[in-house]
Write a structure and sequence with these properties.
Length: about 575
């Protein structure tokens, strides 16, 4: 190893974790290190100590060059296979390749590799026809025992969830469709900042003005429809002018400013409002022009770069000390990647100012949740499993005191040791639906029972069958109130036309309170699995009314002189939600 470079303690720990893991198993693995933590050094050290040949894959030429450079500092020089860098050497002790170039010519990679390392591995799809999977399938033909290691700062994809099956801290990740088997090392951002390895971010929401993207729904991949965003921004032109005016004022005391715009049209509007020391980079910017802009920016001959979803990975300009976010995203991964561009150390750099004018509302220091936010007010909350006591991290809502008033968790993430089957995911479900055939609890979105394989009844199909009878009515809830009448708890539901339906509960005896728990408290709870207070009289529940959620629909059946409640539907998103029915 070169005497000029030594690994930081956490870098050595991550290398040790990889060595220890692959001594025991060939299962694929993931190392999670924050942006700016020096993943290239970890990759180079693994390449140095590996006994066989090593292939390092990534998706942009900048990372190919960066990883190859670090390998050369710690061990013998790496060969590069990348059309963008005009080098195509697919053999040698260590080969660093662009996945696009390698996937086009897999036959060039005909030597046996013992280890494949994928940088920014959250980009790997589990689609067998994807570039990464096709190349990996080819490499396994030469060496079926090849080991696969991924590195990333953000180990999840929207629409997929966590990219690993389970985590060395004893929690499940993605049980159904993981790309990697195990996360074997993870380092949070806070200790790196505390130890001085990263620049401290100072994160603020928009100070003078802010865009309101709350009415636009993101896609499964966390993207917001471009036309809808452009239409909204067209009506908020004054906000853009005010925002850029403030950005220019803040930039007076800053060295490098990176601006993430929402769309190409938006980016061009922003560029017009800036001075001559600004440039624009989009996906359509020619490579030579892009390289020239980045070079001028790194030399600090340009102060501003405006970009649209381009400079989120593989871009390294340590002097960046102001990040301006003008775009919405439902992806905490993308949000972290954007801010990561400003966290590298540089001379005379005290901090990195981050202004989020799109009110994305993520907290960099909280534990991550591998799913999209249910709504803009959601924050990560910790919910203990009542069975195995594992501390789950779910999206949730908190009150002004920080107490949880709602969480959106479905199943416990804890891993437990079983006598017969080894390590398995805890089977407690915070939210579930029962199989009508075997009674086993299933995920609320399941279509097939995981126990007996029976087809679970689709709510719309059931409602269509039931509503064909004249004796049933679908009550669409618009409001729910808890009141007291004659010492009874009354749950009163209202529809859009102010019709009402009431449930009555006695609370005088323990048996009546147990019935109340089963019929109302448990199914309506916003915090399933968490302990409730001892409700002994109606006033106790009325005081905690905000802890109970309203059903979307009530299925009612006509009796002689009244309507009976047949079923309640929560979190319903089917066709009957909006169909008008005023026959009640």
């Amino acid at each position: 190893m070169s005497a000029t470079i030594s690994l930081r303690d956490y870098q050595q720990d991550s290398v040790n974790a990889a060595v220890s893991h692959f001594k025991q198993t060939n299962d694929s693995a993931v190392l999670v290190l924050p942006t700016g933590a020096g993943k290239s050094i970890v990759i180079a050290e693994l390449a140095r100590i590996a006994r066989g040949n090593v292939l390092v894959l990534t998706h942009v030429k900048e990372l190919v060059a960066q990883n190859a450079e670090k390998v050369g500092l710690l061990t013998e020089e790496a060969n590069i296979y990348s059309a963008g860098l005009n080098q195509k050497k697919a053999h040698g002790k260590t080969v660093v390749a662009s996945v696009q170039s390698a996937a086009r010519k897999p036959e060039q990679f005909n030597q046996a590799f013992s280890l494949v390392i994928i940088d920014e591995c959250h980009r790997v799809s589990n689609d067998k026809d994807s570039q990464y999977q096709q190349l990996l399938a080819h490499l396994k033909k030469t060496n079926p025992q090849i080991k696969l290691l991924g590195l990333t700062a953000t180990p999840y994809r929207l629409g997929l969830g966590w990219i690993y099956r389970h985590h060395y801290h004893g929690k499940i990740g993605n049980a159904e469709k993981p790309v990697f088997e195990k996360c074997i090392f993870e380092l949070p951002m806070r200790p790196l900042i505390k130890k001085g390895f990263l620049t401290a971010p100072k994160l603020f929401d928009g100070l003078s003005a802010q865009y309101d993207f709350s009415q636009i729904a993101p896609t499964q991949t966390g993207e917001f429809p471009q036309k809808e965003v452009d239409d909204l921004l067209n009506h908020q032109g004054r906000a853009t002018t005010a925002i850029i005016k403030q950005v220019q004022q803040l930039a007076n005391s800053r060295k490098g400013v990176l601006i993430f715009a929402a769309t190409v049209r938006h980016a061009k509007e922003v560029l017009k409002l800036l001075n001559d020391d600004a440039a624009l980079i989009t996906a359509d910017t020619p490579h030579i022009e892009r390289d020239d802009i980045i070079s001028l920016f790194k030399q600090q001959k340009l102060k501003f770069i405006v970009n649209v979803a381009v400079l989120t990975t593989g871009f390294d300009a340590p002097h960046v000390d102001l990040i301006v976010i003008l775009r919405p995203t439902a992806s905490v991964s993308l949000f972290q990647q954007m801010i990561g561009r400003g966290l590298r150390l540089a001379p005379d750099k005290q901090d990195c100012l981050v202004i989020d004018y799109a009110a994305n509302g993520y907290d960099l220091y909280f534990p991550e949740v591998g799913q999209a936010k249910p709504n803009s007010k959601s924050v990560p909350v910790q919910v203990h499993c009542p069975v195995c006591k594992f501390a789950n991290t779910f999206w949730g809502l908190v009150d002004n005191d920080g107490d949880i008033i709602e969480h959106f968790g479905r199943r416990c993430q804890g891993l437990i040791d079983t006598v017969n089957s080894g390590v398995q995911q805890c089977d407690f479900r915070f939210r579930s639906k029962a199989c009508p055939d075997c009674g086993v609890e299933n995920d609320i979105a399941a279509r097939i029972c995981h126990s007996c394989q029976s087809t679970l009844i689709d709510p719309d199909k059931r409602l269509k069958q039931v509503l064909s009878s004249q004796h049933h009515h679908l009550f669409k809830c618009q409001e729910m109130q808890l009141i007291e009448e004659n010492s009874k708890l009354v749950v009163q539901y209202f529809d859009i036309e102010s019709n009402d339906f009431k449930e009555y509960f006695n609370m005088d005896t323990p048996a009546q309170r147990r019935a109340l728990f089963a019929i109302f408290i448990a199914p309506h709870s916003r915090t399933p699995g968490m302990k409730h207070p001892q409700y002994k009289k109606p006033a106790d529940l009325i005081a905690h009314a905000e802890h109970f959620k309203m059903p979307d629909l009530l299925l009612l059946k006509k009796q002689k002189h009244k309507w009976d409640l047949v079923e309640k539907f929560f979190d319903y998103k089917g066709r009957y939600k909006t169909i008008s029915d005023s026959s009640f």
